[in-house]
Write a structure and sequence with these properties.
Elements: E1 8-10, E2 17-19, H1 64-148, H2 157-160, E3 161-162, E4 165-166, H3 170-179, H4 181-203, H5 212-233, H6 239-264
Antiparallel strand pairs: 1-2, 3-4
Helix pairs in contact: 1-3, 1-4, 1-5, 1-6, 4-5, 5-6
Length: 265
């Protein structure tokens, strides 16, 4: 295979070997030859740098160098545009992340506010139901007791007496009470209240961290509430055990309602 072999010369300044075609030493950058002069391709006239038209024959001067400069400028513009696009994308991404973070924070605030409202609603709804149940429980006790001890009372005589005489069996008196339409309406209101409370309590599951203590407190309140509700819906045992259990449940409701005030006021 044929081909030209590159010749090496020594740099007059540093003595390093360089190509005989090099215009300057790559080691010390000493000029090894004068750069070729620009000449008109048409007439050979030597031209000064920057001339666009030959002053001798009028031939346009090659714009290869200018084109290279334009390409370099074009490349710089592309780089600048790319940087601006990247910067814009980063700004957009940052803005979207900030927006999503703000939305998430607002969502947490909304959840917390709604939870606080549900805590208050559950507390007051249970108080209303327990209060209504307490009145029914007292009426059950009085009908039960007045039948056994044959005590006349304007509110209970219609249940404890038949033809003006006390019933021999307190169960007869209680059955008359439970069959009474007014009592049934009041008892239905208590049961409806219980349904509403259960619905609200389901919403209170998985509380936000700041409401964990309130949730623990309202669970105790709910247990006491259920106890007094169940005693009215299904009274059982004898008069003494019913009275004792009812009084304990009533006291517990008052106690735990008072404990809930620090979370609802």
């Amino acid at each position: 295979m044929g081909g030209k072999v590159m010749a090496l010369i020594q740099c007059p300044n540093c003595g390093k070997e360089v190509s005989d075609k090099a215009e300057k030493c790559p080691n010390c950058e000493t000029l090894l030859r004068e750069p070729p002069k620009k000449v008109c391709k048409e007439c050979g006239q030597e031209l000064n740098e920057g001339v666009l038209i030959c002053h001798k024959c009028g031939c346009p001067v090659s714009t290869e160098t200018s084109e290279r400069g334009s390409k370099k400028k074009g490349s710089k513009k592309l780089i600048i545009i790319a940087v601006l696009i990247i910067a814009a994308l980063l700004i957009i991404i940052f803005g979207v992340n900030s927006y999503n973070k703000k939305v998430e924070e607002n969502k947490k605030i909304e959840i917390s506010e709604n939870y606080g409202i549900n805590i208050k609603t559950a507390t007051t709804t249970m108080l209303k139901g327990a209060s209504d149940a307490e009145k029914l429980g007292v009426l059950i006790h009085d009908v039960w007791s007045n039948t056994i001890f044959e005590k006349s009372d304007a509110e209970t005589d219609m249940y404890t007496k038949t033809d003006g005489r006390f019933n021999n069996d307190f169960n007869d008196s209680l059955n008359k009470l439970f069959a009474d339409s007014t009592y049934q309406t009041r008892l239905s209101a208590v049961k409806s209240n219980q349904t509403n409370v259960e619905r609200i309590m389901k919403k209170l599951q998985d509380p936000p961290e700041e409401y964990q203590e309130a949730y623990n407190a309202i669970k105790d309140y709910y247990d006491a509430y259920l106890e007094i509700i169940n005693l009215v819906i299904n009274p059982s045992g004898n008069l003494q055990t019913f009275t004792s259990n009812f009084n304990d449940a009533d006291s517990a409701v008052v106690k735990y309602y008072a404990a809930m005030k620090i979370y609802t006021e």
